[in-house]
Design goal:
By secondary structure, the chain is an alpha/beta fold. It folds into 2 domains: about 160 residues, Rossmann fold, CATH 3.40.50.300; about 35 residues, no CATH class. It contains 8 helices and 8 strands; from the N terminus they run βαβαααβαβαβββαβα. The strands form 2 sheets. Strands 2-3-1-4-8 form a 5-stranded parallel sheet, sandwiched between helices. Strands 6-5-7 form a 3-stranded antiparallel sheet. It is globular. The protein binds zinc ion (ZN). The site of zinc ion (ZN) has 8 residues, from loops. GO terms for molecular function: AMP kinase activity; ATP binding; zinc ion binding. Monomer. Pfam families: ADK, ADK_lid. Keywords: ATP-binding, Cytoplasm, Kinase, Metal-binding, Nucleotide biosynthesis, Nucleotide-binding, Transferase, Zinc.
Length: about 210
């Protein structure tokens, strides 16, 4: 019997818990969790010509070029720890990237974590970070024991400056615009599964496994 690597993609708006779920699925299957955030940071650390271009792109807040992203992702997917499979999070972000991935390491399933804009805004607006250790809290979902102080180190809790309702709505608008074609792409080839992103982390994890018949 031949061995088939397990390849999955997570799509979902900010606030859907996509990164957390991608990591949990990867841990469960003992395969690599790969996020473009990490790939970009690693490229910037290497300080190559490509790394400098990524750094400039990240600093300007613009999207990284498809060709650069594809190059970095292809490189990452050729690493030894990826031979049993991967869970990708943050990629593909454009149809061009999805087509590229199809030729190199086509995913078996794409999991779309569904969350309404209203719910995503509510989740994102409530986020607070410890200014000392970075621990994330939330005014509805993960309240600190004492208001405005970190449970682990007592540091001040601050809201991210770009977590205003306006900027979140703009990020969601962009998300829909760039993701709709990718959703259609995987749906048309029968590889899209939709999972309700509203329940708690553990429940969503169970639902993801069920949707993938794991
Ligand atoms: Zn802290």
């Amino acid at each position: 019997m031949s061995f088939t690597p397990k390849r999955f993609i997570f799509l979902g708006p900010q606030g859907s818990g996509k990164g957390t779920q991608a990591k949990m699925l990867a841990d469960f299957l003992n395969i690599a969790h790969i996020s473009t955030g990490e790939i970009f940071r690693a490229a910037v650390d290497q300080d190559t010509i490509l790394g400098k271009r990524i750094a400039a792109g990240l600093a300007s807040g613009k999207l990284i070029l498809d060709d650069d992203t594809n190059t970095l992702v292809a490189d990452r997917l050729s690493a030894v720890d990826v031979q049993n499979g991967f869970v990708l999070d943050g990629y593909p972000r454009t149809l061009n990237q999805a087509t590229f991935l199809e030729k190199t390491s086509a995913p078996q399933k794409t999991i779309l974590l569904e969350l309404s804009d209203a719910e995503a805004i509510k989740r994102l607006m409530g986020r607070m970070n410890c200014s000392k250790c970075g621990t994330v809290f939330h005014e509805f979902y993960k309240r600190p024991k004492t208001d405005e102080a970190c449970d682990s180190c007592g540091g001040d809790l601050v809201k991210r400056r770009d977590d205003t309702e306006e900027s979140i709505a703009e990020r969601l608008r962009l998300y829909h615009q760039e993701t709709e074609p990718i959703i259609a792409f995987y749906e048309n080839s029968g590889r899209l599964v939709r999972v309700d992103g509203r329940p708690g982390i553990a429940e969503v994890h169970v639902a993801v496994k069920r949707a993938l018949n794991l």
